[in-house]
Amino acid sequence: MSAAPLLVDLPEPILVLGAYGYRNIGDEAILAGLLRQFDPGVKLTVVSRSPAETKALHGVRSVGISSALTELRRHRSLLIGGGGLFGRDMGALGRLIAPFGLTAAAMGRSIAIVSVGVERDLPMTTIAALRLLGGRATSLTVRDRQSESVLQGWGIESAVTDDLSEAMPSGRRRDARAMLRAAGLQTSRPIVGLCLTSVDQGTSRGLEEAVVELADAFPEAQFCFIPMSQHPFVPAHNDLLLGVRLRAASPRIAVLDGQHHPADVLAIFPLLAAA
Q: How much is the pTM?
Protein backbone atom coordinates (compact mmCIF):
# COMPACT_ATOMS: atom_id res chain seq x y z
CA MET A 1 0.00 0.00 0.00
CA SER A 2 1.08 3.54 -0.64
CA ALA A 3 0.38 6.37 1.74
CA ALA A 4 -3.05 7.75 0.88
CA PRO A 5 -4.44 11.20 1.59
CA LEU A 6 -7.89 11.69 3.03
CA LEU A 7 -10.38 10.16 0.64
CA VAL A 8 -12.84 13.05 0.80
CA ASP A 9 -12.78 16.79 1.31
CA LEU A 10 -14.62 17.76 4.47
CA PRO A 11 -16.47 21.05 5.02
CA GLU A 12 -14.65 23.34 7.42
CA PRO A 13 -14.24 23.76 10.27
CA ILE A 14 -13.38 20.14 11.12
CA LEU A 15 -13.45 18.57 14.58
CA VAL A 16 -10.87 15.78 15.02
CA LEU A 17 -11.55 13.02 17.53
CA GLY A 18 -9.05 10.33 18.51
CA ALA A 19 -6.86 9.05 21.34
CA TYR A 20 -4.91 12.28 21.64
CA GLY A 21 -3.40 14.01 24.63
CA TYR A 22 -2.69 10.79 26.55
CA ARG A 23 1.09 11.24 26.16
CA ASN A 24 1.54 8.16 23.98
CA ILE A 25 4.26 8.50 21.34
CA GLY A 26 2.45 6.24 18.87
CA ASP A 27 -0.85 8.10 19.09
CA GLU A 28 0.85 11.49 18.85
CA ALA A 29 2.72 10.24 15.75
CA ILE A 30 -0.67 9.33 14.27
CA LEU A 31 -1.95 12.85 14.95
CA ALA A 32 1.18 14.36 13.39
CA GLY A 33 0.65 12.24 10.27
CA LEU A 34 -3.04 13.10 10.16
CA LEU A 35 -2.41 16.83 10.36
CA ARG A 36 0.03 16.54 7.48
CA GLN A 37 -2.83 15.38 5.24
CA PHE A 38 -4.44 18.82 5.41
CA ASP A 39 -3.46 21.86 3.41
CA PRO A 40 -2.04 24.76 5.43
CA GLY A 41 -4.72 27.05 6.75
CA VAL A 42 -7.44 24.44 7.07
CA LYS A 43 -9.66 25.26 10.04
CA LEU A 44 -9.75 22.37 12.47
CA THR A 45 -9.82 21.58 16.18
CA VAL A 46 -8.42 18.50 17.94
CA VAL A 47 -10.24 17.01 20.93
CA SER A 48 -7.59 16.08 23.48
CA ARG A 49 -7.20 14.81 27.03
CA SER A 50 -4.45 17.44 27.43
CA PRO A 51 -5.36 20.29 25.04
CA ALA A 52 -2.54 22.62 26.11
CA GLU A 53 0.04 19.91 25.39
CA THR A 54 -1.58 19.07 22.05
CA LYS A 55 -1.47 22.71 21.01
CA ALA A 56 2.18 23.02 22.08
CA LEU A 57 3.30 19.80 20.35
CA HIS A 58 1.35 20.12 17.11
CA GLY A 59 0.60 23.82 16.73
CA VAL A 60 -3.13 23.23 16.34
CA ARG A 61 -6.22 24.47 18.14
CA SER A 62 -7.25 21.93 20.77
CA VAL A 63 -10.06 21.54 23.30
CA GLY A 64 -10.73 19.19 26.20
CA ILE A 65 -13.00 16.16 26.06
CA SER A 66 -15.65 17.88 28.15
CA SER A 67 -15.97 20.53 25.43
CA ALA A 68 -16.39 18.07 22.54
CA LEU A 69 -20.18 18.32 22.26
CA THR A 70 -20.16 22.10 22.45
CA GLU A 71 -17.46 22.23 19.77
CA LEU A 72 -19.46 19.88 17.56
CA ARG A 73 -22.13 22.56 17.30
CA ARG A 74 -19.50 24.97 15.96
CA HIS A 75 -17.98 22.59 13.39
CA ARG A 76 -19.37 21.36 10.09
CA SER A 77 -17.48 18.04 10.02
CA LEU A 78 -16.25 15.32 12.37
CA LEU A 79 -13.14 13.30 11.59
CA ILE A 80 -12.65 10.18 13.72
CA GLY A 81 -9.18 8.67 13.61
CA GLY A 82 -6.77 7.24 13.43
CA GLY A 83 -5.21 4.35 15.38
CA GLY A 84 -6.72 1.47 17.32
CA LEU A 85 -9.80 3.33 18.49
CA PHE A 86 -12.12 0.33 18.33
CA GLY A 87 -10.46 -2.37 20.40
CA ARG A 88 -11.02 -4.37 23.57
CA ASP A 89 -8.95 -1.85 25.57
CA MET A 90 -10.87 1.19 24.33
CA GLY A 91 -12.18 2.07 27.80
CA ALA A 92 -15.33 3.91 28.80
CA LEU A 93 -14.56 7.03 26.77
CA GLY A 94 -13.59 4.96 23.74
CA ARG A 95 -16.98 3.26 23.78
CA LEU A 96 -18.56 6.69 23.35
CA ILE A 97 -16.75 7.45 20.07
CA ALA A 98 -19.27 5.74 17.78
CA PRO A 99 -22.33 7.19 19.60
CA PHE A 100 -20.68 10.61 19.42
CA GLY A 101 -20.32 10.10 15.68
CA LEU A 102 -24.01 9.23 15.42
CA THR A 103 -24.84 12.40 17.32
CA ALA A 104 -22.78 14.37 14.80
CA ALA A 105 -24.61 12.67 11.92
CA ALA A 106 -27.97 13.49 13.50
CA MET A 107 -26.85 17.13 13.66
CA GLY A 108 -26.16 17.07 9.93
CA ARG A 109 -22.37 17.02 10.20
CA SER A 110 -20.18 15.34 7.58
CA ILE A 111 -18.42 12.27 9.03
CA ALA A 112 -15.12 10.67 8.05
CA ILE A 113 -13.52 7.70 9.83
CA VAL A 114 -9.85 7.58 8.91
CA SER A 115 -7.21 4.83 9.22
CA VAL A 116 -8.60 3.15 12.32
CA GLY A 117 -8.04 -0.31 13.76
CA VAL A 118 -11.08 -2.45 14.59
CA GLU A 119 -11.09 -5.62 16.69
CA ARG A 120 -13.74 -8.32 16.58
CA ASP A 121 -14.40 -8.66 20.32
CA LEU A 122 -16.25 -5.41 20.96
CA PRO A 123 -19.37 -4.80 23.07
CA MET A 124 -22.55 -5.41 21.09
CA THR A 125 -23.61 -1.82 21.70
CA THR A 126 -20.39 -0.58 20.06
CA ILE A 127 -20.83 -2.92 17.10
CA ALA A 128 -24.41 -1.74 16.61
CA ALA A 129 -23.31 1.90 16.76
CA LEU A 130 -20.49 1.25 14.28
CA ARG A 131 -22.91 -0.38 11.84
CA LEU A 132 -25.10 2.69 11.90
CA LEU A 133 -22.17 5.08 11.74
CA GLY A 134 -20.54 3.21 8.86
CA GLY A 135 -23.65 3.81 6.78
CA ARG A 136 -23.58 7.52 7.51
CA ALA A 137 -19.85 8.19 7.06
CA THR A 138 -18.74 9.91 3.87
CA SER A 139 -15.46 8.00 4.06
CA LEU A 140 -14.32 5.00 6.11
CA THR A 141 -10.76 3.72 5.96
CA VAL A 142 -8.93 1.20 8.13
CA ARG A 143 -5.22 0.62 8.65
CA ASP A 144 -5.04 -3.15 8.08
CA ARG A 145 -6.73 -6.04 6.28
CA GLN A 146 -7.88 -7.63 9.52
CA SER A 147 -9.91 -4.54 10.43
CA GLU A 148 -11.40 -4.53 6.93
CA SER A 149 -12.41 -8.18 7.37
CA VAL A 150 -13.99 -7.50 10.76
CA LEU A 151 -16.07 -4.66 9.34
CA GLN A 152 -17.09 -6.74 6.33
CA GLY A 153 -18.42 -9.36 8.75
CA TRP A 154 -20.65 -6.67 10.23
CA GLY A 155 -21.83 -5.51 6.82
CA ILE A 156 -19.66 -2.38 6.76
CA GLU A 157 -17.58 -1.52 3.71
CA SER A 158 -14.19 0.15 4.16
CA ALA A 159 -10.94 0.82 2.30
CA VAL A 160 -7.47 -0.06 3.57
CA THR A 161 -4.81 2.64 3.84
CA ASP A 162 -1.52 3.08 5.66
CA ASP A 163 -1.28 3.89 9.33
CA LEU A 164 -1.28 7.68 9.59
CA SER A 165 1.93 7.67 11.63
CA GLU A 166 3.80 6.79 8.43
CA ALA A 167 2.98 10.26 7.09
CA MET A 168 4.66 12.01 10.02
CA PRO A 169 7.71 14.02 8.89
CA SER A 170 11.04 12.76 10.22
CA GLY A 171 12.63 14.55 13.14
CA ARG A 172 16.01 16.24 12.92
CA ARG A 173 19.02 14.42 14.34
CA ARG A 174 20.44 17.58 15.82
CA ASP A 175 17.29 17.95 17.90
CA ALA A 176 17.55 14.31 18.96
CA ARG A 177 21.16 14.82 20.02
CA ALA A 178 20.15 17.89 22.02
CA MET A 179 17.52 15.81 23.85
CA LEU A 180 20.09 13.16 24.71
CA ARG A 181 22.54 15.77 25.98
CA ALA A 182 19.78 17.33 28.08
CA ALA A 183 19.32 13.90 29.69
CA GLY A 184 23.00 13.96 30.70
CA LEU A 185 24.37 11.71 27.94
CA GLN A 186 27.41 12.13 25.75
CA THR A 187 26.44 11.61 22.12
CA SER A 188 30.03 10.76 21.20
CA ARG A 189 29.87 7.60 23.32
CA PRO A 190 27.73 4.46 22.79
CA ILE A 191 24.16 4.78 24.10
CA VAL A 192 21.83 1.85 24.75
CA GLY A 193 18.15 2.76 24.61
CA LEU A 194 15.63 1.13 26.95
CA CYS A 195 11.94 1.10 26.01
CA LEU A 196 9.90 -0.88 28.51
CA THR A 197 6.16 -0.33 28.29
CA SER A 198 3.07 -1.85 29.94
CA VAL A 199 5.26 -3.85 32.32
CA ASP A 200 3.24 -6.21 34.49
CA GLN A 201 3.43 -5.19 38.13
CA GLY A 202 4.06 -8.78 39.17
CA THR A 203 7.29 -8.97 37.17
CA SER A 204 8.39 -5.36 37.54
CA ARG A 205 10.82 -5.84 40.42
CA GLY A 206 12.68 -8.69 38.76
CA LEU A 207 12.87 -6.72 35.53
CA GLU A 208 14.22 -3.65 37.30
CA GLU A 209 16.93 -5.71 38.98
CA ALA A 210 17.90 -7.26 35.64
CA VAL A 211 18.17 -3.86 33.96
CA VAL A 212 20.37 -2.48 36.76
CA GLU A 213 22.62 -5.56 36.52
CA LEU A 214 22.84 -5.05 32.75
CA ALA A 215 23.94 -1.44 33.19
CA ASP A 216 26.54 -2.45 35.76
CA ALA A 217 27.88 -5.19 33.45
CA PHE A 218 28.68 -2.70 30.66
CA PRO A 219 30.35 0.32 32.26
CA GLU A 220 31.67 1.49 28.88
CA ALA A 221 28.11 2.04 27.60
CA GLN A 222 25.53 4.67 28.52
CA PHE A 223 21.92 3.72 29.13
CA CYS A 224 18.90 5.87 28.38
CA PHE A 225 15.33 4.98 29.34
CA ILE A 226 12.90 6.29 26.69
CA PRO A 227 9.26 6.34 27.87
CA MET A 228 6.93 5.68 24.95
CA SER A 229 3.80 6.22 27.04
CA GLN A 230 3.24 8.61 29.93
CA HIS A 231 -0.47 8.15 30.54
CA PRO A 232 -1.71 10.99 32.77
CA PHE A 233 -3.78 8.82 35.14
CA VAL A 234 -3.23 5.09 34.43
CA PRO A 235 0.04 4.08 36.18
CA ALA A 236 0.30 0.80 34.22
CA HIS A 237 0.63 2.86 31.03
CA ASN A 238 3.03 5.46 32.41
CA ASP A 239 6.49 4.17 31.50
CA LEU A 240 8.12 7.17 33.17
CA LEU A 241 7.33 5.74 36.61
CA LEU A 242 9.49 2.72 35.81
CA GLY A 243 12.21 4.94 34.38
CA VAL A 244 12.36 7.03 37.55
CA ARG A 245 12.71 3.88 39.68
CA LEU A 246 15.51 2.61 37.45
CA ARG A 247 17.35 5.93 37.68
CA ALA A 248 17.04 5.85 41.47
CA ALA A 249 18.45 2.31 41.56
CA SER A 250 21.30 3.13 39.17
CA PRO A 251 22.37 6.72 38.48
CA ARG A 252 24.07 5.40 35.31
CA ILE A 253 20.62 5.04 33.74
CA ALA A 254 19.47 8.34 32.26
CA VAL A 255 15.79 9.07 31.63
CA LEU A 256 14.32 11.10 28.79
CA ASP A 257 12.08 13.40 30.83
CA GLY A 258 9.41 15.79 29.62
CA GLN A 259 7.01 15.93 26.69
CA HIS A 260 8.54 15.79 23.21
CA HIS A 261 7.24 15.71 19.68
CA PRO A 262 7.01 12.08 18.51
CA ALA A 263 9.21 12.79 15.48
CA ASP A 264 11.99 14.02 17.76
CA VAL A 265 11.73 10.96 20.01
CA LEU A 266 11.85 8.56 17.06
CA ALA A 267 14.83 10.46 15.63
CA ILE A 268 16.80 9.28 18.67
CA PHE A 269 16.76 5.63 17.67
CA PRO A 270 19.22 5.85 14.73
CA LEU A 271 21.69 7.45 17.17
CA LEU A 272 21.63 4.50 19.56
CA ALA A 273 24.18 1.71 19.63
CA ALA A 274 21.40 -0.68 20.64
CA ALA A 275 17.77 -0.57 21.73
A: 0.92
Residue 121 has pLDDT above 50, yes or no: yes
- Taking the mean position of all CA atoms in its chain, how far away is CA 23? 8
| Domains along the chain with CATH numbers | 14-167 (3.40.50.11720), 173-271 (3.40.50.2000)
* Beta bridge partners of residue 86, listed in sequence order: 118
Percent of the chain with pLDDT over 70: 96
CA angle 146, 234, 192 (to 5 degrees): 80
Alpha carbons 156 and 113: distance in angstroms, whole number: 12
| 148 CB-side CA count, 13 A | 11
CB contact set of 28 (below 8 Å; sequence gap of 6+): 20, 57, 58, 261, 262
Conformational region of residue 236, where left means phi above 0, alpha means psi within -120 to 50, and beta covers everything else: alpha
